[in-house]
TrEMBL record, chain A:
Domain of life: Bacteria
Organism placement in taxonomy: Bacteria, Bacillati, Actinomycetota, Actinomycetes, Kitasatosporales
Domain annotation ABC transmembrane type-1: ranges: 59-260
Protein name, UniProt field: ABC transmembrane type-1 domain-containing protein
Entry keywords, A to Z: Cell inner membrane, Cell membrane, Membrane, Transmembrane, Transmembrane helix, Transport
Similarity section: Belongs to the binding-protein-dependent transport system permease family.
From TrEMBL, chain B:
Lineage: Bacteria, Bacillati, Actinomycetota, Actinomycetes, Kitasatosporales
Listed transmembrane segments: none
Record-linked Pfam families: ABC_tran, TOBE_2
The keyword Nucleotide-binding belongs to this UniProt entry's keyword annotation: yes
Keywords carried by this UniProt record: ATP-binding, Nucleotide-binding, Transport
EC number: 7.6.2.9
Top-level taxon: Bacteria
InterPro entries reported in the protein's UniProt record: AAA+_ATPase, ABC_SmlMolc_Importer, ABC_transporter-like_ATP-bd, ABC_transporter-like_CS, Mo/tungstate-bd_C_term_dom, P-loop_NTPase, Transp-assoc_OB_typ2
Residues in the signal sequence: none
Protein name: ABC-type quaternary amine transporter
One cellular-component annotation, GO: ATP-binding cassette (ABC) transporter complex
Keyword set includes Nucleotide-binding: yes
């Protein structure tokens, strides 16, 4: 028995090592490539980032797009999922299918559809107020059309995160208890359900942020230049810098993940500290 | 936002105890009839238990009163006022739920004070009130604890304190003890009854546990298929059930075949008995008897045979089988039951009192 356990330990170590190498070797190679110089080691690729043309603009645009996408997505999804859970549980599978649908639609197909709509709109709505809407959503300063696309793409991820959060809470009883204590519907949801979905909301927000940070296809085809597109364009002229940016964006994602985990840990600490 | 109008100066009792009336209440869920013309009145300050098997409509009635369900027809009156159109958050009814319903992100004190917060009561005042209520339910030292740090019994006590915080006119208890273990259930049962009597609050208590209903309630309303079978004090319900359903649902009953006599009585075990209530017009009949009313004695010639014995403490419940296969239960003092071991023959007699008679159930194919 002891021999079997020690053999299992060896195998477990080997698998962990292989998985670790699988992830770490390409990253280490990327880091090495970004700092390797003919004269030894140089951090020029990193120090030159801030002054690189388009870096700040594309990063700010991406973060703004991510923030608006997260807000729109949560405002759409959270009330819908709570309403379905409380009042129309038979619609749950329908909502699940609708939210999972973007998984099976490739971003290229989604973008082609968007382009079709964007072309059709101005042709047919020229004399209506909707024409200006089409112009407005495509302005280069803040292309709202990307938010629309990102909301659709992030639906499956956000739905999964929120669904697991809602499964852990007896939403109906909590809302009824709150209403019994004198809270109207909106207050019951905001003061009782939403605080108990904190972890799920953070997960949904983080996954959406990660998706927007790395999304390339739609933004590139529609002709905008958020961060991922900028990295690609820099890669064509300044290879080292584009890899440095990729490493940095990876680090940003990890930092966000750690912050999320820390937020969850802090909450657990706060609740156990009182026991 | 509304301001607090509650008498908060250390007064926990509700300002008035309300009368609750259900009038011809009907509720249909698809093909299922949950309530089929329920008529029931809960008197001011009494604890009325709604008792019945699963699906009899007791929880539906409670949820309609709380405002969480709607009814198809009929009326729900509180102090004579129809509350059908009053939303749940304005019904002035505190409720304790079956499942632990404390808000997980709030401490015990914040849970209790939640309703006061919704009414715009200041923080200092509501925390003072919450502390008062926590003392009332015996948990002042748990004020800063979160629900997951409390036991099931403690959570239900906090839920009770939360339900009482707004000094409601009616207290609704939806099987609040069913998720607790037996010992805690017993303690909390007494605690709820003590508080209810102290505060004199009109209380509607839903349960499927007859022992719970009989031990706690001023009156028990037995429901069956959405209709009221009988509403009476526990002792009356037990000793004078008006229907066979009530008799068999409340307490234990044995059925014995009997025949009609010419004078409107029945003959059972070779003796004539008067009938309590109406005698079914036709069909084979059964007499319903409680175990404590069946007398057993050792008898070498039978006709009954002891087939089972269950030790219940001071009494032992013996099951005897008659030659026709009928099984009858009898409660005997444990010392007397020792004279009737398993397999021994016994004679049984019924007391000379009116007996409840019901139509014999149709045998299942």
């Amino acid at each position: 028995m002891a021999q079997l356990i020690s053999r299992l330990r060896v195998w477990r170590g080997a698998v962990l090592l292989l998985a670790g190498l699988y992830f770490l070797v390409p990253m280490a190679a990327s880091v090495w490539f970004s700092i390797d110089d003919v004269d030894g080691i140089s951090f020029d690729a990193y120090t030159g980032l801030l002054s690189a043309p388009g870096f700040t603009d594309s990063l700010v645009l991406t973060l703004e797009l991510a923030a608006v996408t997260v807000v729109v997505l949560l405002l759409l999804l959270v009330p819908a999922m709570i309403a379905v859970r409380i009042g129309a549980s038979r619609l749950r599978p329908v909502l699940e299918v609708v939210c999972t649908l973007p998984l099976v639609v490739p971003p290229v197909a989604l973008t082609a559809g968007l382009i079709g709509v964007l072309r059709w709109g101005p042709d047919h709505l020229m004399d209506t107020p909707f024409f200006q809407t089409f112009v407005f959503v495509q302005q280069p300063g803040f292309p709202l059309v990307l938010v629309v696309a990102y909301v659709l793409m992030a639906l499956p991820l956000a739905h999964r995160a929120l669904d697991s959060g809602l499964r852990a809470v007896d939403v109906r009883t909590l809302v009824e208890a709150a209403r019994n204590c004198g809270a109207g519907w909106p207050r019951a949801v905001l003061s009782v359900v939403v605080p108990n979905l904190r972890g799920a909301l953070l997960s949904a927000a983080f996954l959406t942020l990660a998706l927007v940070l790395g999304e390339f296809t739609t933004a590139s085809i529609l002709g905008y230049q958020p961060f991922a597109v900028w990295i690609y364009s820099v890669g064509n002229s300044r290879g080292q810098m584009s890899v440095a940016v990729s490493v940095l964006s990876l680090l940003i994602t990890w930092v966000l993940l750690l912050l999320l985990a820390a937020a969850g840990r802090e909450r657990r600490h706060r609740t156990t500290a009182t026991s | 936002m509304s301001t607090a109008t509650l008498p908060l100066a250390g007064d926990t009792a509700p300002s008035t105890s309300a009368t609750v009336e259900f009038r011809s209440l009907r509720r249909q869920f698809g093909a299922t009839t949950a309530l089929d013309g329920l008529d029931l009145t809960v008197r001011p300050g009494e604890l009325l238990a709604l008792l019945g098997p699963s699906g009899c409509g007791k929880t539906t009635a409670l949820r309609i009163l709380a405002g969480f369900e709607t009814h198809d027809s009929g009326e729900v009156l509180v102090d004579g006022e129809d509350i059908t159109r009053v939303p749940a958050h304005r019904r002035d009814a505190g409720m304790v739920f079956q499942s632990y319903s404390l808000f997980p992100h709030l401490t015990a004190a914040d849970n209790v004070a939640f309703g006061l917060r919704m009414r715009g009561v200041g923080k200092a005042e509501r925390l003072r009130r919450a502390q008062e209520l926590l003392e009332l339910v015996g948990l002042p030292q748990r004020a800063a604890h979160y629900p997951h740090q409390l036991s099931g019994g403690q959570q239900q006590r906090i839920a009770l304190a939360r339900a009482l915080a707004l000094q409601p006119r009616v207290l609704l208890l939806d099987e609040p003890l069913s998720a607790l273990d037996a010992k805690v259930r017993l303690a909390l049962r007494e605690e709820i009854r003590r508080l209810q009597q102290e505060l004199g609050i009109t209380t509607l208590f839903v349960t499927h546990d007859q022992e719970e209903a009989l031990s706690m309630a001023d009156r028990v309303a037995v429901l069956r298929a959405g209709r009221l079978e009988q509403c009476a004090a526990p002792s009356e319900l037990y000793s004078r059930p008006t229907t066979a359903f009530v008799a068999e649902f409340v307490g234990t009953m044995s059925r014995l075949p009997c025949t009609r006599t010419a004078d409107g009585g029945v003959e059972v075990l070779g003796r004539r008995h008067p009938v309590d209530g109406a005698l079914p017009a036709d069909g084979p009949l059964h007499v319903l008897v409680r175990p404590e009313h069946v007398r057993l004695a050792p008898a070498a010639e039978g006709p009954a045979l002891v087939v089972a014995a269950a030790f219940l403490g001071a009494v032992t419940r013996l099951t005897v089988r008659l030659p026709d296969g009928t099984e009858v239960k009898s409660d005997l003092p444990t010392e007397a039951a020792a004279a009737l071991p398993l397999g021994s023959p016994a004679a049984l007699t019924l007391p000379d009192r009116p007996v409840l008679v019901d139509r014999a159930p149709t045998p299942q194919p």
